[in-house]
Specification:
The chain is mainly α and 182 residues long. The chain has seven helices and no strands. Helix content is 70%, strand content 0%.
Length: 182
């Protein structure tokens, strides 16, 4: 793991909270753009939820559910959520910061996670040849994997926090719309 990847892994969550404050300050939401953003936010949350119910961290290589379409459905979901909120914000600055954060923080983390998976699971190499890093396949790899969604895993990974965070930010944006109108 590179030095920057270690730093990126440690700062990504706290930096997300700092970004949320900056985001709210820069956001100029409207009902129309909030609805447009939701078109991306909702599928992003759904992808993350489904992925979290298929991943058994450090126990088995996840290849079922969303992992049959993309190697990183959790990050793809996060990216969709982020772009959706950028649309809802109606701020180019938010979009620029989002892109910079993705390439500076998340791409190195993804690469390190994949290096770990290559070492831990010999079958990862074949999986990586068949499934792209971020862009999903049109059809699932093979039979789509044999794993079933586990609500217990969803809860164990505390993926509901993504939903709660999104709902809180949507509520804050709605409050901001209402306050700007008065």
């Amino acid at each position: 793991m590179s030095a920057w990847s270690k730093i990126a892994r440690r700062i990504r969550v706290p930096l997300g909270f700092v970004f949320a404050v900056l985001y709210f300050w820069l956001a100029r939401p409207s009902w129309r753009f909030l609805a447009l953003g939701a078109i991306l936010i909702v599928p992003g949350l759904l992808i993350r939820a489904l992925a979290s119910g298929h991943v058994r961290k450090n126990e088995a290589l996840a290849t079922s559910g969303p992992y049959a379409y993309t190697r990183n459905p959790l990050y793809l979901g996060s990216l969709l959520i982020g772009v959706g909120f950028a649309v809802a914000a109606r701020s180019w600055w938010v979009g620029v910061v989002l892109v910079v954060m993705f390439f500076a923080i998340y791409l190195p983390v993804i690469r390190d996670e994949e290096a770990f998976l290559r070492r831990k699971f010999p079958e990862f190499e074949e999986y990586a040849r068949q499934v792209q890093r971020m862009l999903p396949r049109i059809t699932p790899r093979g039979d789509g994997g044999s794993g079933e969604f586990s609500f217990a895993l969803y809860l164990q990974h505390r993926e509901y926090n993504a939903l709660l965070g999104a709902l809180a930010m949507l509520a804050a944006l709605i409050a901001k719309i209402m306050l700007l109108r008065s």
